[in-house]
Each structure stands twice: as C-alpha cells, then as structure tokens.
Amino acid sequence: MILRKHKAKTDAKPIDARNSFRLRFLKKGAAEIDYIIAIGFFIFMLVLSLNFMTGYLSSAKDSARIEILRSESSTLMNKILTDLGTDAYRVFILVNNTQGDLINELVSFNLSSNIDLNSTMLYEINYQNNSIIYNRISYSRSNEIYTFAINISAGTTKNFIAYFDDDSNFTDRSVSVSGIDNLTSGYEKVYPAEKIFLIQYKKILSFINKTYEEVKGNSSVEGDFRIRLLDSSNSTVFDFGQTPPVRGNIVAVQKYVVYKNSTDIKNGRLIIQLW
C-alpha cells in the first residue's frame, strides 16, 4: 500500500512585498496630508485672528484719536469765540398803528450814553415763507436819541431791532430823516436792552493778521486746524489755517453766531476743522 502525502489547501496568498510597501506608503501619505491640512487650517485661522486683532487695535486707536480731536476742537472753539467776541446789545421796538395809513411816521428811542453810539445798526423785521428777513433802516441821531421814518398801513404792526455794543470802531452813521410823529408813545414800545454775544469786526481784522504759528502757539491743541466764518449764504467771511488732508481723522465743529462786518450785522457760522 502506497501512502501519498496531500498538501493542505489554504486560501492564503503569499504576501507580496511590493503591495505591502505600497500600503504602508499610502497610509503614511494620508497621514502627512492630514497633517498638512491641519497646519494650513491653523495658519489660516492665525492670519484671520491677526487680521481681526489688527483691525480692532487700529479701530480702537482711531476712536481714541477722534475723542482727543473732539475735546481739542471744543477747546479751540471756545478760545476763538473768546478772542473774537464781545458783549453786544439789542433792543426790540414795536410800532402799533391804530390810525390810517401813515407815510414817513417818525419813531424815536433812547439808548444809554455808556455805549458806542456809532455802533448802532437798525433793522426792520419781516417774516416771509417761514424765514426772518432783516431790512436795514437809516436813522438820525442826536446824542443818545435815535429817530427813523417808516411807512405803515392802518391797523398793522411792525417790528424793529437795534444792535449796538460798547467798544466798536465805526464812524457816525447818522443821516437826515424827516417826517411826522402821529403815534403817541403808547403805540411805540421800546423793550429793555438785551445782552448778546457778537463777533466783532475789528477783532476779526486783528485775528486774520496773525500768523498760523502764533495762533496755534497760543492754543492748547497739538494737531493742525482750519477756522472759517461763513455768512448765511455760505459765502466766506474769512478762512484761516491749514488745508485739511484728503484722508485721515478730521473732526469738525460749528457754531451759529452773529457777527459784524465793515458795514453790517449778519448771521453766520463759525466752523473749526481739526486733524
């Protein structure tokens, strides 16, 4: 009897060294790709965070600078108003016509001798389209007594206002006025004088003749500035200081004022830009 040896059957295949190396390489490559992606994501988040922090710090710095500029602009505005301003006065006058139409009706009022009599300016107040219109009126002065002539319709009233101060440098404005005084003092009411703030003409002239370095040296501001006075039609009365930059932090403040020029009293805006 002949015995034969049978080999055991198996499904296992011989290990291919090249496939084994390829698997190890693929696993290692996948791990390195994950690592690279993780590093890239970290760098992206870091850049994003730095960009956010830079913007935040820059914004905080700008905000702090703007607050300083606001404080300095307010301080400069107060100083300029002090340098240019003076105490002035105004008197309201009401004329009530209880008679017929009056032509060249004479109206008189008296001011204190302690003022600059030549500084007085007289206006008729009119209201048109929700606006107040001031029309200049000529007057005659005899010492402290002022007289002017008006035309007024029957049963109507008219309002007038006189401005004056105590340290002006104007020449005598008195002219000849003629007419008839038909209304008694009871229908021509002069109200007590009221003190107001006014930018004086001679102080404007003194201010604009100064150098920029002189004005800045007498102020407490560190930045540069521009100061403008505009009239009610936005025309420039004076423009003093430096030209603002095209870009940067610029703070502007303004104040509505009454000012006197060489011939008149007007409303305007004082504007200060600081950077």
**Separation of the first and last Cα atoms:** 118 Å
Q: What is the general shape?
A: elongated
Contiguous uncertain segments of 5+ residues: none
Number of helices: 3
CATH class of the largest domain: Mainly Beta
- The tally of structural domains comes to 2
Radius of gyration: 42 Å
Helix amount: 25-40%
CATH architecture of the largest domain: Sandwich
User: How much strand?
Assistant: 35-45%
Architecture overview:
It contains 3 helices and 13 strands. It is elongated and about 125 Å long. Strands 1, 3, 4, 7, 8 and 9 form a 6-stranded antiparallel beta sheet that branches. Strands 11-10-13-12 form a 4-stranded antiparallel beta sheet. Strands 2-6-5 form a 3-stranded antiparallel beta sheet, with no helix packed on it. The protein folds into 2 domains: 64-84 and 201-274, no CATH class; 88-197, Immunoglobulin-like, CATH 2.60.40. The N and C termini lie far apart (118 Å). By secondary structure, it is an alpha+beta fold. The model has no long low-confidence stretch (mean pLDDT 83).
Topology:
Elements: H1 17-84, E1 85-96, E2 102-110, E3 121-128, E4 131-137, E5 140-142, E6 145-152, E7 157-165, E8 188-190, E9 194-199, H2 201-208, H3 212-217, E10 225-231, E11 236-241, E12 251-260, E13 265-274
Antiparallel strand pairs: 1-7, 1-8, 1-9, 2-6, 3-4, 3-7, 5-6, 10-11, 10-13, 12-13
Give the structure's gist in a few sentences.
The chain has three helices and 13 strands. Helices cover 30% and strands 36% of the residues. The model has no long low-confidence stretch (mean pLDDT 83).
